[in-house]
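anyone seen this seq b4? input:
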Amino acid sequence: MKEFVVGGTVEPTHPTYIKRDADDVLFKACVIGEYSHILTARQLGKSSLMVATAKQLKEKEDRETVIVDLTKISRGKVQANDWFFYLTADLSRRLKLTGDIKGWWDEHKNLSVIQRFEYFFRDIVLTQISKSIVIFLDEIDQMLEFDFKDDFFAVIRSMYNDRASYSDYKRLTFVLLGVATPDDLIEADYRTPFNIGGRISLRDFKLEDCIPFQKRLQEKYPTHGLTYLKQIHQWTNGHPYLTQKLSQLVYDAELGETGNVVENQIQTFFNQDRDDFNIDYIKTRVTTDKHAKEILRIYQQIYEQTNFPDDSKSIPIRRLKLHGLVVAKDKNLDVRNRIYIKTFDLDWVSESLEQFDDVVRERLDETRKQVRDLKKQQEDLQLIFSKLGVLYRWNVAIMIVLLGLIVFGTMIAPYYLPWSLVILGLLLAVCWGALIGMVIWFITEYNRAPQLSDDYNNSGAIQPENNQ
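predicted toks r here
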């Protein structure tokens, strides 16, 4: 067994699993059948808490528990019918249900996938299993881009609300885990937001929580284990993943019991931070967020100010907390730990903003090029239309002359129609056909011609937005 768990789930039996307030809160909520959601940044211990709670529910309360990782069924472009069937089949297998689930699913294809999913729980799961069931849905953020995700979370909410009319639903409890906010789950304006269940927060480890880390460190550093733990905590501020990683780096160091072990390993960490998943994840999530520019500017203010007020209604602040870069303390916001302060400093903010501006400039240049191309196409079409206008006028003049000759010919030869008049009539018909063809072509090409958007002015620049 490795001394520390760097990344991945910390099993509840591992010596460095640390129990927090959230352990008791989630366990009690599941016991009384209350829906819960743990929606927070990555690598704060969501999966470890989930596994520990599922184990405890099974052993102490004899509950049926199922853990589903939605990543496995949410890869690539998936149709709603396939996705819901995969989830239903996976739940059927894990719950050890009897019967042909594929046959049942196809048999009820006259129902929508949402109805089939709900009836699966009502008519099969709760019929075959008499125990209370707790279903943990992990990595729910993996399906937030699907156009049917509102339906999925709506049916979960529906089963909770239907407990009054269908009492067996009281035996069914869902726990949602992932990097998201409740507002992300159901976004359609015509639907009720996902407003059920209790929110469970995960705090970072306090120093007094970290006794298991101290014991592991003292196995190698008997006299300095506590000292090193305090130094580690000063850097990580109890961030679960970073505390595990830095503790492992210190444990693996071959420097003996010297006062510089932690500082040396911290330097090693910073030299390798490009390869660290947690650091790279935050960089990517912040700089690719659709609110990136606002997030970076707010973060710059938090970094520079001592008491920056928290605002739960601010989208950039909510995104910053969701990405794990800042944390709320006493109604104020702080950068989460010293490692983040050193890594995500003001130079990083400036460079990120410059890159963001470079991207905007590239897009603006590309847009201007498209505008110039559109103008060139319009100018070419205008030249063609002007030449067609000349031909049109000549065609009309020829038709008038031909018509005059035909009228004159019929006047001087009223009793017979010479071949010359026949030829003139045919020429007149051809001119009429050419005229009608030019008009039709002109109308068609004009409608198909690219039109400049109102967002552009005569110079090809984007018009400034009205922010009033």
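The chain has three domains: 21-199, 277-344, 365-448. Residues 365-448 form one domain. kinda curious what u guys think
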